[in-house]
Amino acid sequence: MFRYVDDWFVGFDNAGQAEDSVSMLCKACSEYEMELNDEKTRVVDPFEPTEENWPSELQNLNIRPSGRAQREDLAHYFSRAFELAGEHHEKNVLDYAIKITRSKNIADENLRFYEVNLLKAARINPSSFQVVAEILINLNYQGRPITKQDVMKLICDTINSCAELGKHGELAWALFLAKGLRIRLPQQAIQKIANVESSVCALLSLDLKKMGLLETRLDTSFWQSFMNGDSLTDEMWLLAYEANFKGWLPSPNNHVDSHPFFSVLKRKKVFFYDEGRNVPKTIKALRLLRQETQQRASIIRRIFNFDYFDE
Question: Best exposed site among 3, 232, 257, 305 by fewest CB in 10 Å?
Fold first, then answer.
């Protein structure tokens, strides 16, 4: 068994054993409340090539340290990354390509060009929004110049496209990026998020309201409908608890203090949404990525009871 980028390959003596292993893996994933991606899980013939060339190609593309040479390298790098993303729709090429650039020191004179390509990647591949947000927030923290007007347009466009479709992951990162860069959201964006049924998105929006980063009044009537005891035991429990704990939404029936379990958490000052948390610094983020890879490898080893694992 070995791991190549984000793909895992497990070898068996025959197709029957391989099919059985898929069933075993499905069952194991369900215990973690996860499921396999059917489009990416398949039994392959041993003569079929398993490794792809695009990750190595991206890794081997050189980006020089500064000046016009660096800009030319960045132009070639992103051009090739976008081409490879078009050739491999089923792979998260852009996410991988952007993560590689985190280890590069982008010169000030090329930062705008780099930023434009990051924003383009986030639009083409929304699953890249998280790493793009982390990079932009890190750059801003370092005092590097960020074109906040363009970033705000990306945030607003993401809110408009994701709010109604229920894509809460990308929406949450768009809101977090607004918080990280202290970008005030316009009225149109605020109206879109007011009826999103997501505790994380609701708490981020309420946090933006507290920070004064909303240009107009936020209608919280939809989220206030979850401020009751019943909501503490359904999918919106996080909002029902945290908004009461922080005093962000009114609780007519004092539902947290009267709950037998959540009242204990509140008395002990337990909270889940930390307003002071930020994205990891770039070096720390790379270390965390390595740790995540090792944890996934450990889970796979336990599932299949393998003694040997080659990363």
Answer: 305
